[in-house]
Write a structure and sequence with these properties.
globular; single chain; Rossmann fold; binds 1,3,4-trihydroxy-5-OXO-cyclohexanecarboxylic acid; about 20% strand; alpha/beta; five-stranded parallel sheet
């Protein structure tokens, strides 16, 4: 089982940005947590973070035929990007949408998610654990 974990803009600022929403741990900690979970469960993961929409589109396109699942936190691009939705539809890899904070309880502009139309599942407000839950879901459903 090979999973690509993609994070969008400002996720590299975890630990500094709005700790009341995103916690005190940084992006490196999140990556370690995911890698450890993957190792313990015999799953291969690749981690990618970018602040640039086009780079995220490129990464999704490059995943075609290479991954069994995608875990994606598109961050602010969740609420704006048709390009990310189209990229996910293009490669047609089972995808779970993750948000660290509970976007459902936040501003109106965060209530739209373009990628959600393609995603099998959305996990919101479970902090960093949401990524592990998403990996567990994909592994249970598609693991081999
Ligand atoms: C986020 C929620 C988004 O609304 C926000 O723009 C982010 C992070 C989350 O993980 O809770 O950057 O995706």
């Amino acid at each position: 089982m090979k999973i690509l974990v993609i994070n969008g803009p400002n996720i590299n600022m975890l630990g500094i940005r709005e700790p009341h929403l995103y916690g005190n741990q940084n992006y490196a900690y999140l990556c370690e947590m995911i890698q450890k979970y993957a190792l313990d469960n015999g799953i291969e993961v690749e981690l990618y973070q970018s602040n640039h929409e086009g780079c995220l589109v490129d990464k999704i396109q490059e995943s075609y035929g290479r991954f069994d699942g995608i875990v994606m936190n598109p961050a602010a691009y969740t609420h704006t990007s048709v390009a990310l939705l189209d990229a996910l539809k293009s490669v047609n890899i089972p995808t779970v949408e993750v948000h660290i904070s509970d976007v459902a309880k936040r501003e109106d502009f965060r209530q739209i998610s373009y990628v959600r139309q393609f995603c099998e599942k959305t996990i919101c407000g479970h902090g960093f654990d949401g990524y592990l839950e998403a990996i567990e879901y994909l592994n249970t459903r598609y693991g081999k």
